[in-house]
Design goal:
Layout (H helix, E strand, L loop, with lengths): L4 H11 L9 H9 L8 E5 L4 H14 L4 E4 L11 E3 L2 E2 L2 H15 L6 H16 L3 E5 L16 E4 L7 H4 L3 H9 L7 E4 L6 H10 L2 E4 L4 E5 L4 E5 L2 E6 L8 H15 L8 H10 L7 E4 L3 E5 L4 H12 L7 E5 L7 H8 L5 E4 L10 H10 L4 E3 L3 H11 L5 E5 L2 H14 L1
Parallel strand pairs: 1-5, 1-6, 2-5, 6-7, 7-8, 13-17, 14-15, 14-17, 15-16
Antiparallel strand pairs: 2-3, 3-4, 9-10, 10-11, 12-13
Helix pairs in contact: 3-9, 3-10, 4-5, 7-8, 11-12
Length: about 425
């Protein structure tokens, strides 16, 4: 009998024949058996990159308004508990075990993936906790993702670019259509991509969603010490810089503000709460600075779109020494595209392999770097690569660990143990 959270997670991983099984029918059956038809408002947030940041801003702004917020995100870095937060606090092991057991009892012979069972468990906990509002991060795509089994009162697509092509399609047009699948007719639909594919716009119009586009209906005006956000005729003035670094965070923050504005009749949020949320929102692993001299940065960037944002953040750093990159990636990502994007910014690469069926071996990554004529050193694992970079970097240098959630998680775990 499964008794601990670790037991549950191992059982779900072992039971799953395929890591991804897109489709809503199976999830809907179990949702109905559990009577998970919440009356509280729902925000669904999808996108190639930036969706986790939008969720963080939404959660922080709503918490600052005094709402009891349920927030579901994925993947996690160190603990599964990170995925499920109620009133700003991670769900404990006992609560997650109870929720996973409730879903297990209801599913019967219905097959569910690891992500699907976790998604239903999160909503079961939100319903039991009596939250005022829920923020749900889409796992992949949108149209066929488990989160989309519920009709969002407001849906956000933060960006559209190439990733997960084996499931979502090989073009921005195909991926844009999949992500637009979280929009609902007659409800606010926020798009944070400044140049979305026509398929996203066409689908929103076809179903009668109230589409608001960044750069068109959502505008930001930067200032020397503050900025403002315009949502149609509404203005949110004197906003502080987002706590998360990077110019792209203004678009993510503006998407969150637009989403809240779209539900202001049901969930009024004052400007002071918006300001507080901008200053307080954090998302681990997004250009996260964990040390100085040398500067040590963690970033989960794992596709070319995210790599471009990472490169811009590196360019924005004060002039200093060299950049040492600790890199490990999954084999099913656009490895060459990511490496080429960051090549001009990195002096020396410390490459490692990732374990698991999707992991790219260290030798494979070294071969890609060799083909790009990048100075590199290969290591057995991420922890060794991190140690090697720390030994080689000078006080004025930067050590950047990136390439996957797994890469950042392994560095964080190593630091927790070894400092």
């Amino acid at each position: 009998m499964t008794t601990t959270l670790a037991d549950w997670l191992r059982a779900l991983e072992a039971r799953q024949r395929e890591p991804i099984m897109l489709g809503l029918e199976r999830v809907a059956v179990v949702r109905d058996r559990l009577a998970l038809h919440p009356l509280f408002p729902l925000f669904s947030v999808g996108g190639t990159n930036g969706k986790g940041s939008v969720c963080a801003y939404l959660e922080a702004m709503l918490l600052a308004s005094g709402y009891r917020v349920g927030c579901y995100t994925s993947p996690h870095l160190l603990r599964y508990n990170e995925r499920v937060r109620i009133a700003g606090v991670e769900a404990d092991d006992a609560a997650l075990v109870e929720a996973l057991a409730a879903v297990e009892a209801a599913r019967g012979e219905v097959p569910l993936t690891y992500f699907e069972q976790g998604t239903l468990a999160a909503m079961w906990l939100f319903a039991r906790a009596g939250v005022d509002v829920a923020v749900l991060e889409v796992g992949m795509g949108g149209r066929l993702d488990a989160v989309n089994v519920w009709d969002a009162d407001c849906a956000v697509v933060s960006s559209v670019d190439l990733d997960h092509q084996q499931y979502l399609g090989d073009t921005r047009a195909a991926i844009g259509f999949e992500k637009a699948g979280i929009f609902r007719g007659g409800r606010p639909a926020i798009c944070g991509d400044a140049d979305p594919p026509p398929t996203l716009i066409d689908h929103a119009h076809a179903i009668g969603a109230h589409l608001l586009r960044f750069g068109v209906d959502i505008r930001i005006e930067p200032g020397a010490s503050a900025w403002l956000c315009r949502i149609g005729a509404a203005t949110y003035p004197a906003l502080p810089q987002p706590a998360m670094p990077g110019a792209h965070q203004y678009a993510n923050a503006a998407c969150a503000i637009a989403a809240l504005d779209g539900l202001r009749a049901r969930l009024p949020v004052e400007v002071k709460a918006v300001r507080a949320g901008l200053a307080q929102a954090r998302q681990p692993g997004r250009f996260q600075i964990i040390g100085q001299r040398p500067l040590r940065v963690l970033d989960v960037a794992h596709n070319p779109h995210a790599a471009r944002a990472l490169a811009a953040n590196l360019t924005g750093l004060p002039p200093a020494g060299e950049v040492h990159a600790v890199c490990a990636m999954l084999a099913d990502k656009d490895v060459d595209g990511v490496l080429a994007t960051l090549k001009p910014h990195v002096r020396h690469w410390h490459c490692a392999g990732l374990s698991g069926p999707r992991g790219l071996g260290g030798d494979g990554l070294a071969g890609r770097l060799r083909a790009l004529d990048c100075a590199h050193t290969a290591y057995a694992g991420v922890a060794d690569a991190w140690t090697g970079a720390c030994q080689r970097a000078g006080p004025a240098d930067t050590i950047l660990a990136f390439g996957s959630f797994h890469t950042v998680a392994e560095v964080l775990a190593y630091i927790q143990t070894h400092g």
